[in-house]
Amino acid sequence: MRVIVLGATGEMGRxxxxxxxxxxxxxxxxxxxxxxxxxxxxxxxxxxxxxxxVLDCLNKQTLxxxxxxxxxxxxxxxxxxxxxxxxxxxxxxxxILNVGDPRVNxxxxxxRGKAAQEAVYRSAGVPSTVVSSAQWFELARSLxxxxxxxxxxxxxxxxxxxxxxxxxxTFLADVxxxxxxxxxxxxxxxxxxxxxxxxARRIAAVEEPRTRVLxxxxxxxxxxxxxxxxxAVTTIDRVRFEDWLDSQTD
Length: 250
Fold this sequence. Notes:
It is a single chain. By secondary structure, the chain is α/β, with parallel strands linked by helices. The chain has a single domain (about 1-250), classed as Rossmann fold (3-Layer(aba) Sandwich), CATH 3.40.50.720. The strands form three sheets. Strands 2-1-3-4-5-9-12 form a seven-stranded parallel beta sheet, with helices on both faces. The mean pLDDT is about 95. Helix 1 links the parallel strand 1 (about 1-5) and strand 2. The protein is built from ten helices and twelve strands.
């Protein structure tokens, strides 16, 4: 199968591209560094020619709703239009659980952008699957570096059912191999509920023992009280946080 991965230089794009190639698929790693720009559409027609599937792992780090909505809705429209013209058989979009829930996205501009992206894919003229993932264990690590005062890290309380990024890559590769199904959505989460600030504290104890982690209330009740938890049929991964953390120090 010929699969084009958009955002192939990002964390998930690299992971799933490597995995697809290991399974014997022909993978086109599309990014601006390879001459493909999903915002302007440059290079998409050439990249999509002969493709059986396109996997959108594009990302933009921003807290601005305007910037996030602009980026994700524009790239989704550009990608779906190019895929339709190239007669691509299946589009897969990586998203996040519950980003369309106002309790979740009202104070998160990035999530509002992902919700706009999902809406475009669900109305595309090409068979499309939105794969919604719970927050990754790796997010707890990145939260350690976002608000720092010396050796103190301030991490927001976020109740979630996080999952390993490696497991999400495997799930995405399986969705690609399965092809388009009648349902448009697929979901994956980890086996246990956790407060991400507590996971950040446990990571710091192993990786940054001199760092003190303080939990802070998140400005948005839905985030702290279950809005990020799976509420529909969801694949539950077996990798627990303890197993993931052990694997980081092997």
